[in-house]
Amino acid sequence: MNSAHPFENPNGLSNFIEIIAMLCIPAALIYTYGLFAKNTKQAWLLFWMVFIIYAVLIGVTAVGEYQGNPLVNNALGLEQPNLEGKELRFGWSQTALWAITTTGTMSGSVNGMHDSLMPSGGFSTLLNMFLQIVWGGQGIGTAYLFIYSILTVFLTGLMVGRTPEFLGRKIEKREIVLASVVLLVHPIAVLIPSAIALTFPNSLAFVIPPPGYTGSPEFHNISRVIYEYASASANNGSGLEGLGDSTLWWNLSTCLGLLMGRYVPIIAILLLADSMTRKQAVPETPGTLRTDSTLFTAITAGVIVILGVLTFFPVLALGPIAEAFNFASRLK
């Protein structure tokens, strides 16, 4: 029951305090980065960029929950929010807020069943764990923002014909290779085992078939498999229930995803930091690309969307997006 239990989370005030507790450390670490880099302006720009993405994902999820399940509403002739799988004292709004916060901060706690979220909620929670920067785990979100900033500096430097520099150090092949390793490990740890599990749905993915399962993965079942590996690799801990996941396959494959998704990026980031500390500091000139501007922050957001979203777009299309279209088609 987790944070839906009345002894652990009895009312709206306790719910609010726990949400703040989840957010305060990863959000504060963005400002801490600015203090270490002696550039608080850049830190605040990154903070507001992340906050905007966070607010948009909350809005997408909340609207879906408020509109309710169209199949149920159509059958009953009512217009009501989606309250299935939710504690009534929190309702659709606080459940949507918690779902985005917990998958964004990698806390893994839940105050409602994520498996009961509408497709828009499934999309947003998955996207949070794919990006890992909204707000990210304790230090993980800041580290990934650092990686995305390095790649943005490199790409913009190529476009305008300037040598890429970040934090007064030149960005060269070694730094780009290590940054690429950090960003590639997560999709490898999520997509490859998901593909293997879905290739053998009866023996691996759905050992205990969910209600209504007929032998071929439906859209929501695909989301369940992807969510399981994304949660393991992102060190989240929540899940879309309905899988027969207490098996040797799930235990070993998710352990591998957890190890790859955390330890490989940690090692790569430490090597990258060591590489940059060994470089000679480059004095700032009028030709130096400033990283504390609104334009650079907007380009960073574009890089995050392009690299993060497009990497996982096929599984998002097969899971929550296809499920949303399926809802619409069944109403006709």
Q: State Rg.
A: 21 Å
Termini gap: 37 Å
Give the helix/strand class. mainly alpha
Residue ranges: pLDDT <50 for 5 or more in a row?
none
| H and E order | HHHHHHEEHHHHH
Helix content: 55-70%
Give a count of the beta strands, DSSP E runs of length 2 or more: 2
Could you characterize what this model shows?
- The structure is a single chain.
- The protein is an all-alpha fold.
- 68% of the residues lie in helices and 1% in strands.
- It has a two-stranded antiparallel ribbon.
- It starts with 11 loop residues before the first helix and ends with a helix.
Key descriptive features of the protein:
mainly alpha, 11 helices, 332 residues, two-stranded antiparallel ribbon
Write the layout of secondary structure elements.
Layout: H1 12-37, H2 40-67, H3 70-76, H4 91-105, H5 119-131, H6 140-160, E1 165-166, E2 169-170, H7 173-199, H8 201-205, H9 219-233, H10 248-277, H11 294-331
Antiparallel strand pairs: 1-2
Helix pairs in contact: 1-2, 1-4, 2-4, 2-5, 2-11, 4-5, 5-9, 5-11, 6-7, 6-11, 7-9, 7-10, 9-10, 9-11
Summarize this, please?
This protein has helices spanning 12-37, 40-67, 70-76, 91-105, 119-131, 140-160, 173-199, 201-205, 219-233, 248-277, 294-331; strands spanning 165-166, 169-170. With 332 residues, the protein is an all-alpha fold. The chain has one domain.
